[in-house]
Amino acid sequence: MTNSFAQDVLAGLTATEKYLSSKYFYDDNGSRIFQEIMNMPEYYLTDAEFEILSMQSKQIHEALQFSEPFNIIELGAGDGFKTFKLLEYLVNKNIDFKYVPIDISQEAMDILTESLRERLPTLNVKPQVGDYFEILKVNRESNFPSLLLFLGSNIGNYSPQKATELLTLFNKNMKNGDKLLIGVDLKKNPITIHNAYYDSHGITKRFNLNLLLRINRELDADFKIDDFDFYSNYNPDNGEVKSYIVSLRNQTVNLKKINKTIIFGYNELIWTELSKKYDVKEINTLAKSSSFKVQNNFMDCKHYFTDSLWVK
Ligand code: AVJ
């Protein structure tokens, strides 16, 4: 097998219930489509978290109770747009800290660093490209307290069990007293959630079908995009948004690079994403199960979203 993308695609498309991992949405094109999603009025998550980080920077900083200097390590920083307000507040207050954004995309880190040099020239920023845990290991040797940021409801893509595993790994790479600010999307009117993920503009559909284009390109496959559709559904009983690609006909697809033909039935689904919504009680359970203590929940005024501050 050539690489893990090929292996994962093969495993997912040969399973009885087909699936593809949402982590593969984010090639350059997918990252751009995700920016479009964040700009849709229906995708309330971005605005809600932006409100929290811009209106409550002071409260968040006070809640840290850190000695200076300290570190702010952001996991999956992306374009760092939301974090900017928090950084700006701290810089303007002359607070002594180092900002370490981490992302798998070199391009995203270059853009972020460039824009921060321009907009916050006195900010001490050390961007890192690569695997979270390789970089987090270094944190354990730092003499200074650290705040980890895991924003944007990225945790929602993991099942509660997988989320616990990931957060336990974060915890193991933290020092006692280090804190984690984690963005979690809250349960709310199911229609509001439905509209954020099954949008009438078709942007989220494009986001999903882009994964088939990626497979075409990287695995020399022949998905006919027009023969697939998109469906997404929120289940208020368990807080799960599940997203799918739908085959609109009986069809076969060849993945030439890995010498594999996949058969799709009429209306057969490929499950592509979980976006889990939590309530405060479930957040407490998740924190506890990964050895954290919840210190504060910083919510937007509509209580759509929380940046939850956890202590190790
Ligand atoms: C980037 C994982 C937070 O699940 O809300 C947006 C991705 N998927 N619309 C989310 C996404 C469909 C998003 N996260």
Structure, explained:
Keywords: Methyltransferase, Transferase. This is L-histidine N(Alpha)-methyltransferase. This protein is of the alpha/beta class and 312 residues long. It has 2 domains: 2-41 and 200-276, no CATH class; 44-188 and 278-311, Vaccinia Virus protein VP39 (Rossmann fold, 3-Layer(aba) Sandwich), CATH 3.40.50.150. The protein contains 11 helices and 13 strands. Strands 1, 2, 3, 4, 5, 6, 12 and 13 form an 8-stranded mixed β-sheet that branches. A hairpin with a 4-residue loop joins strand 7 (228-235) and strand 8 (240-247). The longest helix is centred in the last third of the chain and has 16 residues, at 203-218. The radius of gyration is 20 Å and the shape is globular. The mean pLDDT is 95. The protein binds N,N,N-trimethyl-histidine. Residues 37, 45, 152-154, 156-157, 197, 204, 273, 275 line the site of N,N,N-trimethyl-histidine (AVJ).
